[in-house]
Amino acid sequence: MTTIKTVDTPRVPLPSQRVRAALRDAAPALLGYAAVRAVGVVVLIYWGHARGQSWLRKLSTIWDANWYANVAVHGYGHSLPAMSNGHGPTVHSNMAFFPLYPAAIRVVRAITPFDTHSSALAIAWVASLAAAWGIFAVGSWCYGRQVGIAATLLWGVLPQAVIESLAYTEPLFTALAAWSLYAVLTRRWLWAGVLCALAGLTRPSGAAVLAAVGFAVGAELLRLRRLGQPAKAWRPCLGLLIGAAGLFGYVGWVDLRLGRWDGYLAVQHQWNSNFDFGHSTARHIAALLLHSTPSPLGGIVVTLILCAAAVLFALSSANRQPLPLLVYSAMLMVMAVGDTGFFNSRSRFLLPAFPLLLPLATGLTRVRSRASRVVLLSSATIASALYGGFLVYVYNHAL
User: Fold this and answer.
1) 121-135, 287-301, 365-379: which has the highest mean pLDDT?
2) What pTM does this model have?
3) Which of 200, 203, 205 lies closest to 242 in space, CA to CA?
Protein backbone atom coordinates (compact mmCIF):
# COMPACT_ATOMS: atom_id res chain seq x y z
CA MET A 1 0.00 0.00 0.00
CA THR A 2 1.42 3.33 -1.04
CA THR A 3 1.33 6.20 1.39
CA ILE A 4 1.01 9.69 0.09
CA LYS A 5 2.86 12.38 1.93
CA THR A 6 1.06 15.62 2.37
CA VAL A 7 2.95 18.88 2.63
CA ASP A 8 1.51 21.41 5.00
CA THR A 9 1.23 24.76 3.30
CA PRO A 10 1.90 27.73 5.55
CA ARG A 11 -1.24 29.41 6.74
CA VAL A 12 -1.69 32.96 5.56
CA PRO A 13 -2.68 35.16 8.51
CA LEU A 14 -6.12 36.70 8.29
CA PRO A 15 -6.30 40.51 8.02
CA SER A 16 -7.68 40.70 11.57
CA GLN A 17 -4.76 38.61 12.82
CA ARG A 18 -2.26 40.87 11.06
CA VAL A 19 -3.88 43.95 12.58
CA ARG A 20 -3.79 42.45 16.08
CA ALA A 21 -0.14 41.50 15.65
CA ALA A 22 0.72 45.00 14.42
CA LEU A 23 -1.20 46.51 17.33
CA ARG A 24 0.70 44.36 19.84
CA ASP A 25 3.95 45.48 18.23
CA ALA A 26 2.93 49.14 18.48
CA ALA A 27 1.48 48.86 22.00
CA PRO A 28 4.49 50.39 23.83
CA ALA A 29 4.45 53.38 21.50
CA LEU A 30 0.69 53.88 21.77
CA LEU A 31 0.61 53.47 25.55
CA GLY A 32 3.54 55.85 25.94
CA TYR A 33 1.90 58.38 23.64
CA ALA A 34 -1.40 58.13 25.51
CA ALA A 35 0.44 58.66 28.79
CA VAL A 36 2.27 61.83 27.74
CA ARG A 37 -0.86 63.30 26.19
CA ALA A 38 -2.88 62.37 29.29
CA VAL A 39 -0.52 64.58 31.30
CA GLY A 40 -1.28 67.43 28.92
CA VAL A 41 -5.03 66.89 29.17
CA VAL A 42 -4.91 66.73 32.98
CA VAL A 43 -3.13 70.10 33.00
CA LEU A 44 -5.81 71.51 30.69
CA ILE A 45 -8.57 70.18 32.95
CA TYR A 46 -6.97 71.63 36.09
CA TRP A 47 -6.25 74.96 34.39
CA GLY A 48 -9.83 75.23 33.19
CA HIS A 49 -11.17 74.40 36.66
CA ALA A 50 -8.93 77.06 38.21
CA ARG A 51 -10.28 79.66 35.78
CA GLY A 52 -13.89 78.56 36.19
CA GLN A 53 -14.15 77.38 32.58
CA SER A 54 -15.40 74.09 31.18
CA TRP A 55 -12.34 72.33 29.82
CA LEU A 56 -14.46 70.14 27.55
CA ARG A 57 -16.17 73.15 26.03
CA LYS A 58 -12.88 74.97 25.65
CA LEU A 59 -11.07 72.14 23.87
CA SER A 60 -13.97 71.52 21.50
CA THR A 61 -14.82 75.13 20.56
CA ILE A 62 -11.51 76.99 20.52
CA TRP A 63 -10.77 78.99 17.34
CA ASP A 64 -10.98 76.72 14.25
CA ALA A 65 -12.82 74.01 16.19
CA ASN A 66 -15.94 76.16 16.22
CA TRP A 67 -15.75 76.68 12.46
CA TYR A 68 -15.64 72.94 11.79
CA ALA A 69 -18.59 72.38 14.12
CA ASN A 70 -20.49 75.10 12.28
CA VAL A 71 -19.86 73.40 8.93
CA ALA A 72 -20.98 70.08 10.41
CA VAL A 73 -24.27 71.59 11.55
CA HIS A 74 -25.11 74.14 8.86
CA GLY A 75 -23.06 73.12 5.83
CA TYR A 76 -21.18 75.46 3.52
CA GLY A 77 -22.14 78.92 2.32
CA HIS A 78 -22.96 79.64 -1.30
CA SER A 79 -21.05 82.85 -1.91
CA LEU A 80 -18.13 84.97 -0.79
CA PRO A 81 -18.97 87.35 2.07
CA ALA A 82 -19.30 91.00 1.11
CA MET A 83 -16.35 93.28 1.74
CA SER A 84 -16.62 95.94 4.44
CA ASN A 85 -15.36 99.36 3.28
CA GLY A 86 -12.69 97.65 1.25
CA HIS A 87 -10.84 96.55 4.36
CA GLY A 88 -11.96 92.94 4.49
CA PRO A 89 -15.07 90.79 4.74
CA THR A 90 -17.59 91.33 7.51
CA VAL A 91 -17.54 87.55 7.99
CA HIS A 92 -15.28 84.91 6.48
CA SER A 93 -16.27 82.06 4.18
CA ASN A 94 -16.40 78.66 5.85
CA MET A 95 -15.33 77.07 2.56
CA ALA A 96 -11.76 77.56 3.77
CA PHE A 97 -12.37 74.54 6.01
CA PHE A 98 -12.11 71.20 4.22
CA PRO A 99 -15.04 68.74 4.37
CA LEU A 100 -13.81 65.40 5.73
CA TYR A 101 -13.68 66.38 9.40
CA PRO A 102 -17.14 68.01 9.44
CA ALA A 103 -18.54 64.97 7.62
CA ALA A 104 -17.02 62.67 10.24
CA ILE A 105 -18.51 64.85 12.98
CA ARG A 106 -21.97 64.45 11.47
CA VAL A 107 -21.57 60.67 11.30
CA VAL A 108 -20.38 60.32 14.90
CA ARG A 109 -23.11 62.66 16.12
CA ALA A 110 -25.72 60.55 14.31
CA ILE A 111 -24.62 57.19 15.73
CA THR A 112 -23.59 58.17 19.28
CA PRO A 113 -25.12 60.13 22.17
CA PHE A 114 -22.46 62.84 21.70
CA ASP A 115 -23.37 66.36 20.67
CA THR A 116 -21.55 68.12 17.83
CA HIS A 117 -18.65 69.48 19.86
CA SER A 118 -18.10 66.28 21.84
CA SER A 119 -18.16 64.29 18.59
CA ALA A 120 -15.50 66.57 17.13
CA LEU A 121 -13.24 66.12 20.15
CA ALA A 122 -13.75 62.35 20.22
CA ILE A 123 -12.74 62.09 16.56
CA ALA A 124 -9.62 64.16 17.19
CA TRP A 125 -8.55 62.00 20.14
CA VAL A 126 -9.08 58.73 18.29
CA ALA A 127 -7.33 60.15 15.24
CA SER A 128 -4.35 61.20 17.36
CA LEU A 129 -3.89 57.56 18.40
CA ALA A 130 -4.16 56.47 14.77
CA ALA A 131 -1.56 59.11 13.90
CA ALA A 132 0.74 57.88 16.67
CA TRP A 133 0.41 54.35 15.29
CA GLY A 134 1.22 55.57 11.78
CA ILE A 135 4.27 57.48 13.02
CA PHE A 136 5.46 54.35 14.80
CA ALA A 137 4.95 52.30 11.63
CA VAL A 138 6.94 54.71 9.46
CA GLY A 139 9.71 55.14 12.03
CA SER A 140 10.00 51.39 12.57
CA TRP A 141 10.11 50.69 8.84
CA CYS A 142 12.88 53.23 8.31
CA TYR A 143 15.11 52.82 11.36
CA GLY A 144 13.79 50.07 13.62
CA ARG A 145 11.21 49.59 16.36
CA GLN A 146 12.96 51.62 19.07
CA VAL A 147 13.21 54.66 16.81
CA GLY A 148 9.53 54.24 15.95
CA ILE A 149 8.61 54.28 19.63
CA ALA A 150 10.83 57.29 20.31
CA ALA A 151 9.39 59.25 17.36
CA THR A 152 5.85 58.59 18.58
CA LEU A 153 6.66 59.83 22.08
CA LEU A 154 8.43 62.91 20.74
CA TRP A 155 5.41 63.80 18.62
CA GLY A 156 3.32 63.78 21.80
CA VAL A 157 5.62 66.17 23.70
CA LEU A 158 6.23 68.82 21.04
CA PRO A 159 5.68 72.41 22.19
CA GLN A 160 2.55 72.61 20.01
CA ALA A 161 1.36 69.08 20.87
CA VAL A 162 -1.70 70.51 22.65
CA ILE A 163 -3.23 70.75 19.15
CA GLU A 164 -3.40 66.93 19.21
CA SER A 165 -5.89 67.20 22.08
CA LEU A 166 -8.12 69.88 20.53
CA ALA A 167 -10.99 69.51 18.08
CA TYR A 168 -8.68 70.42 15.19
CA THR A 169 -7.93 68.63 11.93
CA GLU A 170 -4.22 68.08 12.55
CA PRO A 171 -4.66 64.70 14.32
CA LEU A 172 -6.87 63.34 11.54
CA PHE A 173 -4.63 64.73 8.82
CA THR A 174 -1.47 63.36 10.43
CA ALA A 175 -3.04 59.92 10.74
CA LEU A 176 -4.01 59.85 7.06
CA ALA A 177 -0.66 61.27 5.96
CA ALA A 178 1.40 58.86 8.07
CA TRP A 179 -0.45 55.79 6.84
CA SER A 180 -0.38 57.02 3.24
CA LEU A 181 3.39 57.44 3.49
CA TYR A 182 3.70 54.00 5.06
CA ALA A 183 1.71 52.56 2.16
CA VAL A 184 4.08 54.33 -0.24
CA LEU A 185 7.16 52.95 1.52
CA THR A 186 5.71 49.42 1.37
CA ARG A 187 4.47 49.88 -2.24
CA ARG A 188 0.78 49.54 -1.44
CA TRP A 189 -0.09 52.02 -4.14
CA LEU A 190 -3.87 51.88 -4.10
CA TRP A 191 -4.00 52.29 -0.33
CA ALA A 192 -1.53 55.15 -0.61
CA GLY A 193 -3.82 56.84 -3.12
CA VAL A 194 -7.00 56.38 -1.09
CA LEU A 195 -5.40 57.72 2.09
CA CYS A 196 -3.81 60.58 0.15
CA ALA A 197 -7.23 61.50 -1.25
CA LEU A 198 -8.71 61.53 2.25
CA ALA A 199 -5.83 63.69 3.49
CA GLY A 200 -6.56 66.07 0.62
CA LEU A 201 -10.15 66.31 1.82
CA THR A 202 -8.98 67.16 5.34
CA ARG A 203 -6.53 70.05 4.94
CA PRO A 204 -4.89 72.03 2.12
CA SER A 205 -1.61 70.52 3.31
CA GLY A 206 -2.84 67.38 1.59
CA ALA A 207 -0.75 68.84 -1.23
CA ALA A 208 2.33 67.68 0.71
CA VAL A 209 1.07 64.09 0.80
CA LEU A 210 0.18 64.25 -2.89
CA ALA A 211 3.65 65.53 -3.74
CA ALA A 212 5.24 62.69 -1.77
CA VAL A 213 3.07 60.11 -3.50
CA GLY A 214 3.82 61.70 -6.87
CA PHE A 215 7.59 61.56 -6.38
CA ALA A 216 7.35 57.97 -5.16
CA VAL A 217 5.26 56.96 -8.17
CA GLY A 218 7.78 58.58 -10.50
CA ALA A 219 10.62 56.65 -8.87
CA GLU A 220 8.60 53.43 -9.08
CA LEU A 221 7.90 53.90 -12.78
CA LEU A 222 11.61 54.35 -13.44
CA ARG A 223 12.35 51.21 -11.43
CA LEU A 224 9.79 49.17 -13.36
CA ARG A 225 11.18 50.45 -16.64
CA ARG A 226 14.69 49.37 -15.67
CA LEU A 227 13.33 45.93 -14.73
CA GLY A 228 11.44 45.65 -18.00
CA GLN A 229 8.08 45.36 -16.20
CA PRO A 230 6.00 48.27 -17.56
CA ALA A 231 2.81 46.21 -17.26
CA LYS A 232 2.98 46.62 -13.47
CA ALA A 233 2.85 50.41 -13.71
CA TRP A 234 -0.92 50.61 -13.55
CA ARG A 235 -1.14 50.30 -9.78
CA PRO A 236 1.12 53.26 -8.90
CA CYS A 237 -0.44 55.36 -11.67
CA LEU A 238 -3.96 54.59 -10.48
CA GLY A 239 -2.94 55.28 -6.89
CA LEU A 240 -1.65 58.71 -7.90
CA LEU A 241 -4.85 59.53 -9.78
CA ILE A 242 -6.94 58.51 -6.78
CA GLY A 243 -4.72 60.54 -4.47
CA ALA A 244 -5.14 63.69 -6.55
CA ALA A 245 -8.93 63.39 -6.52
CA GLY A 246 -9.33 64.54 -2.91
CA LEU A 247 -7.53 67.89 -2.94
CA PHE A 248 -8.38 68.85 -6.52
CA GLY A 249 -11.92 67.58 -6.11
CA TYR A 250 -12.68 69.90 -3.20
CA VAL A 251 -10.92 72.90 -4.72
CA GLY A 252 -12.83 72.32 -7.96
CA TRP A 253 -16.09 72.03 -6.05
CA VAL A 254 -15.49 75.40 -4.37
CA ASP A 255 -14.72 76.96 -7.75
CA LEU A 256 -17.98 75.60 -9.18
CA ARG A 257 -19.98 76.67 -6.12
CA LEU A 258 -18.70 80.22 -6.41
CA GLY A 259 -18.92 80.29 -10.19
CA ARG A 260 -15.32 81.38 -10.75
CA TRP A 261 -12.15 79.53 -11.68
CA ASP A 262 -10.23 80.96 -8.70
CA GLY A 263 -12.98 80.47 -6.14
CA TYR A 264 -10.88 78.65 -3.55
CA LEU A 265 -8.02 81.15 -3.93
CA ALA A 266 -10.51 83.97 -3.40
CA VAL A 267 -11.73 82.32 -0.20
CA GLN A 268 -8.17 82.01 1.06
CA HIS A 269 -7.42 85.60 0.07
CA GLN A 270 -10.27 86.86 2.24
CA TRP A 271 -8.72 84.95 5.13
CA ASN A 272 -5.42 86.71 4.32
CA SER A 273 -3.92 83.33 3.52
CA ASN A 274 -1.76 83.79 0.45
CA PHE A 275 1.68 82.56 -0.59
CA ASP A 276 4.45 85.18 -0.51
CA PHE A 277 7.56 82.95 -0.54
CA GLY A 278 8.29 83.63 3.13
CA HIS A 279 8.30 87.43 3.09
CA SER A 280 5.66 87.69 5.83
CA THR A 281 7.43 85.10 7.98
CA ALA A 282 10.76 86.89 7.64
CA ARG A 283 9.13 90.19 8.58
CA HIS A 284 7.60 88.70 11.73
CA ILE A 285 10.86 87.07 12.80
CA ALA A 286 12.79 90.29 12.17
CA ALA A 287 10.30 92.21 14.30
CA LEU A 288 10.70 89.69 17.12
CA LEU A 289 14.49 89.89 17.01
CA LEU A 290 14.90 93.63 16.48
CA HIS A 291 11.98 95.18 18.37
CA SER A 292 12.95 96.82 21.63
CA THR A 293 9.84 95.75 23.57
CA PRO A 294 9.60 92.24 25.08
CA SER A 295 8.53 89.67 22.50
CA PRO A 296 5.45 87.51 23.16
CA LEU A 297 6.27 83.98 24.26
CA GLY A 298 4.13 82.43 21.52
CA GLY A 299 5.99 84.27 18.77
CA ILE A 300 9.37 83.26 20.20
CA VAL A 301 8.37 79.59 20.38
CA VAL A 302 7.05 79.65 16.80
CA THR A 303 10.33 81.17 15.61
CA LEU A 304 12.35 78.52 17.45
CA ILE A 305 10.17 75.76 15.96
CA LEU A 306 10.72 77.10 12.43
CA CYS A 307 14.48 77.22 12.99
CA ALA A 308 14.49 73.73 14.51
CA ALA A 309 12.52 72.40 11.54
CA ALA A 310 15.17 73.70 9.14
CA VAL A 311 17.96 72.04 11.15
CA LEU A 312 16.06 68.75 11.44
CA PHE A 313 15.34 68.74 7.71
CA ALA A 314 19.06 69.12 7.02
CA LEU A 315 19.78 66.21 9.37
CA SER A 316 17.04 64.13 7.72
CA SER A 317 18.61 64.75 4.32
CA ALA A 318 22.08 63.91 5.63
CA ASN A 319 20.72 60.65 7.06
CA ARG A 320 19.30 59.79 3.62
CA GLN A 321 15.75 59.59 4.78
CA PRO A 322 13.47 58.01 2.13
CA LEU A 323 12.62 60.50 -0.61
CA PRO A 324 8.82 60.50 -0.01
CA LEU A 325 9.38 61.56 3.62
CA LEU A 326 11.76 64.34 2.60
CA VAL A 327 9.36 65.62 -0.05
CA TYR A 328 6.48 65.56 2.43
CA SER A 329 8.41 67.47 5.11
CA ALA A 330 9.79 69.97 2.59
CA MET A 331 6.33 70.74 1.25
CA LEU A 332 4.92 71.29 4.74
CA MET A 333 7.82 73.60 5.58
CA VAL A 334 7.35 75.60 2.37
CA MET A 335 3.61 75.93 3.01
CA ALA A 336 4.16 76.99 6.64
CA VAL A 337 6.90 79.52 5.90
CA GLY A 338 5.32 80.88 2.72
CA ASP A 339 1.84 81.53 4.13
CA THR A 340 0.78 85.10 4.91
CA GLY A 341 -1.81 84.12 7.51
CA PHE A 342 -1.50 84.14 11.28
CA PHE A 343 2.17 83.87 12.23
CA ASN A 344 1.34 81.84 15.32
CA SER A 345 -0.31 79.14 13.19
CA ARG A 346 2.97 78.21 11.51
CA SER A 347 3.98 75.86 14.30
CA ARG A 348 0.60 74.12 13.97
CA PHE A 349 1.13 73.75 10.22
CA LEU A 350 4.37 71.88 11.00
CA LEU A 351 2.79 69.52 13.54
CA PRO A 352 2.12 66.83 10.88
CA ALA A 353 5.78 66.97 9.75
CA PHE A 354 6.65 63.96 11.91
CA PRO A 355 9.52 62.71 9.66
CA LEU A 356 11.52 65.66 10.99
CA LEU A 357 11.48 63.93 14.38
CA LEU A 358 13.26 60.81 13.14
CA PRO A 359 16.80 62.23 13.60
CA LEU A 360 15.88 63.26 17.15
CA ALA A 361 14.33 59.84 17.79
CA THR A 362 17.47 58.13 16.51
CA GLY A 363 19.59 60.27 18.83
CA LEU A 364 17.32 59.55 21.78
CA THR A 365 17.65 55.79 21.32
CA ARG A 366 21.44 56.18 21.41
CA VAL A 367 21.37 57.68 24.89
CA ARG A 368 22.74 54.77 26.90
CA SER A 369 21.26 55.61 30.28
CA ARG A 370 17.60 54.72 30.56
CA ALA A 371 17.30 57.17 33.45
CA SER A 372 18.55 59.96 31.20
CA ARG A 373 15.95 59.10 28.56
CA VAL A 374 13.21 59.11 31.19
CA VAL A 375 14.35 62.50 32.52
CA LEU A 376 14.46 64.00 29.03
CA LEU A 377 11.01 62.74 28.06
CA SER A 378 9.49 63.63 31.43
CA SER A 379 10.86 67.17 31.23
CA ALA A 380 9.56 67.57 27.69
CA THR A 381 6.16 66.21 28.75
CA ILE A 382 5.80 68.71 31.59
CA ALA A 383 7.02 71.63 29.49
CA SER A 384 4.67 70.71 26.64
CA ALA A 385 1.72 70.37 29.02
CA LEU A 386 2.33 73.75 30.67
CA TYR A 387 2.88 75.52 27.37
CA GLY A 388 -0.27 73.87 26.02
CA GLY A 389 -2.26 75.24 28.94
CA PHE A 390 -0.80 78.67 28.28
CA LEU A 391 -1.81 78.53 24.60
CA VAL A 392 -5.37 77.43 25.35
CA TYR A 393 -6.22 79.60 28.37
CA VAL A 394 -3.84 82.58 28.37
CA TYR A 395 -2.47 83.29 24.90
CA ASN A 396 -5.17 85.36 23.22
CA HIS A 397 -4.18 84.62 19.62
CA ALA A 398 -5.30 82.10 17.02
CA LEU A 399 -3.45 78.80 17.29
Assistant:
1) 121-135
2) 0.94
3) 200
